[in-house]
Amino acid sequence: MTKLDELLKEINREHVYIQTHNFPDPDAIASAYGLQCLLKHRGICSTICYKGKIDRYSTEKLREMMQIEFLNIEDLEAVLTEEDEVILVDAQKGNSNIINMTGDEIICIDHHPYNDMFQYRFMDIRPAIGACATMIAQYFFENDVPMDEKIATALTYGIRIDTNNLARGVSKLDFEMIYRMYDLCDYETIHMLENSNLCFEDLVAYSKAISSIEVYDNISFADTGEACPVIANISDFMLALKEVSFSVVYSRNEGGIKLSVRSEKSSLDAGKIVSKALEGIGNGGGHAAMAGGFVPFEGSEQQAVVLLDEIKERFVSVIGASKA
């Protein structure tokens, strides 16, 4: 019995909801879309939903070009019930980047570290895999489900983005799925998406981050300004500095401060460090090489400065202890 077969056994309704994290990226969008197509092939209808917004221009362009319908959970509140079945994709219940929507979270498909506080009827959680889209692609091939160009293109793009073009946190399965989808997808579309992922506002954020960067030993901190949609890209950018092996980039968003964290040293686990550094004031987690966090905050600018200084001190302290 394949994982898809196991998953399908746990669905009791003719319609389910597929929920991504609050700010869906290409991997989340591609994975949700791929799963929706798999379910449709097996006679199950689904609605993809999220709470928040799609930040990046190229991510919204992917959704638009692939004609993927994503609904905001706020627009579904009138119809959702506690009996509705929910499948979590590229996220896990209890994590800081996903809300607890109305319904029963019965299934989880994810590639982030396992949050053992919650259980599901079925879960496929594989932290060693570079992208959730890789796992969805495997479902297609091991079950001989036809994959059209749209699905292959979306899944391939999701894998490429989440693994930084197969250069970060990549596994053998990621390479295998990219290879098997090579002749199926539209690489012209993928290259277009990869080469048009910035707009003028993003350049302003890069400028703000460059002008604000602070480096302590080999740890960098940078402020991207308010509601930055490319915070993860800027964190990757800062890690490229030869003086930096651990990057923390932050942006003040509605309701709090969002952080993107990157590490190039195996001895500095980004996911564990951000979780420890934000303990008691926020939440964080992720992979050893890439992670994120969120600190709830509604105060003044002056109070924000004080809080950010505390956050920096916490990271320096935790990293110092990790090196000891």
Percent of residues in β-strands: 15-25%
Averaging pLDDT over every residue, what do you get? Answer: 93
Give the fraction of residues assigned to helices. 25-40%
Shape call: globular
- Computed structural class: alpha/beta
How many distinct helices? 11
Low-confidence stretches: none
Main β-sheet, spatial strand arrangement: 3-2-1-4-5-6
Q: How many distinct beta strands?
A: 12
**Element pattern in H and E:** HEHEHEEEEHHHHHEEHEEHEEH
Largest β-sheet summary: 6 strands, parallel
What is the CA-CA span between the terminal residues? 47 Å
Please compute the radius of gyration using only Cα atoms.
19 Å
Describe the structure in your own words.
By secondary structure, this protein is α/β, with parallel strands linked by helices. Helix content is about 40%, strand content about 20%. The protein has helices spanning about 5-10, 25-40, 55-65, 130-140, 150-160, 170-180, 185-195, 200-210, 230-240, 270-275, 300-324; strands at about 15-20, 45-50, 70, 85-90, 105-110, 120-125, 215, 220-225, 245-255, 255-265, 285, 290-295. The strands form two sheets. The chain has a six-stranded parallel beta sheet, covered by helices on one side. A six-stranded mixed beta sheet has the order 7-8-9-10-12-11, with helices on both faces. Helix 9 links the parallel strand 8 (about 220-225) and strand 9 (about 245-255). The termini are far apart.
